Amino acid sequence: MAAVASMPASFWASSPSVPTKSRTTFSNVKSRLSLPLNKSHSFSNFFPTFPSRFSLRSSGFSLTTPISASSSSGNADYRQEPATKVKFQASLSIPGCSESLSLVGTGYREKVFALIGVKVYAVGLHVNESIFGKLDAWRGRSAAEMMKDSFLFETIFKVPMEKSISIVLVRDVDGKTFWDSLNEAISPRIKSPSPDDETALSTFRSILGGRPLKKGTSIVLAWMNSAQMLVCVSSSSDATTPSSVDAKIESANVTSALFDVFLGSNAISPSLKASVTNGLEVALKRRP
C-alpha cells in the first residue's frame, strides 16, 4: 500500500487505459487490483510487498457490460458494479435532495501503471427520473450512438433536476492524494477561474484534503442545478450513504467541470459512461 500511496497525483487523475482484448485477475492477494496481463510475472520491481509471482486467469472485458443483477439487503434494492463488486442502491435518498434518485449506471476508476491495473473506486450515476422525459430526442437510439453524442450528456447536466455521482472507495486513499488527482482533472476544464471558482475549489479541497479516506468510504456529488452542487462524505467506511451535507458548491464552472470529468468526452471512467448509456437506452425504450 505504501508504494501505491506514494504515486504522483497524475497517476490517479489521467484518463485510464482500457484493455481491449483481455483482463486477468489474481486470487491470492486481497481483491483490490485487476492486472491486465496474460501470464505470470514478477512484480517485485514495482511493488516489493507483493508476492513475487501470481497465477492469473483471463476474463473478458467490454465497455458495454451492463449493471449486474439486482440484490436485496433489508428493504433496500441494490445493483452490483461487476468489476469491483460494490453495490449501489437502486433508489438513493441524499441529504439536501427533494426526491429519491434512480440508478442509471455504474463503473469504476482505474489506472494502469507498470502493467498493473489499479482500481481506485466504484462510481454510480443516479438521476431524478423526470430527466428521462427531457431526452425524447434520443429515444430509439442505441447505447453505442448515445456514447458518442456529447450533447446528450450536456442536456442531462443542464436539465434543472437533481442528479448525483456516488463514489465508493475500494482501497484506502489519502485525502490529499484524492483531492490532488481530482483537481488535476478539473483544472484543465476551467481555463480562467473566477473568484467564485477559486472559492468553490478551496471549499472542496478543505473537505477532502484533510481526512483519510478508507476503503468503503462514500463521496456523493449531488447537482441541484447546473450552478449548485452538494458534497456529502460518509462518516465511516461502514456507512453506505452519507447522512449529512458537508458543503455546498456554488460555481457554474466547477459544477460543470466535475460533471464533465465523469461523463464528458474524455471521461475518467469509460465503464461508467458506457453503463449509463446502456441504462438510458433501456429507460427511454420503456417510456410510454
Walk me through this protein's architecture:
- By secondary structure, this protein is an alpha+beta fold.
- The protein is 27% helix and 27% strand.
- The strands form four sheets. Strands 2, 7, 8, 9, 10, 13, 14 and 15 form an eight-stranded antiparallel β-sheet that branches. The protein has a three-stranded antiparallel β-sheet with strand order 4-5-6, with no helix packed on it.
- Helix 5 packs antiparallel against helix 6.
- The longest helix has 17 residues, at 270-286.
How do the strands and helices of this protein lay out in sequence?
Layout: H1 2-5, H2 9-13, E1 23-26, E2 33-34, E3 56-59, E4 70-73, E5 76-80, E6 87-89, E7 91-92, E8 101-113, E9 116-127, H3 143-147, H4 150-158, E10 163-169, E11 173-174, H5 175-186, H6 195-208, E12 212-213, E13 218-225, E14 228-233, E15 247-250, H7 252-263, H8 270-286
GO molecular function: fatty acid binding; intramolecular lyase activity
Organism: Cuscuta campestris
Biased composition (Polar residues): 12-21
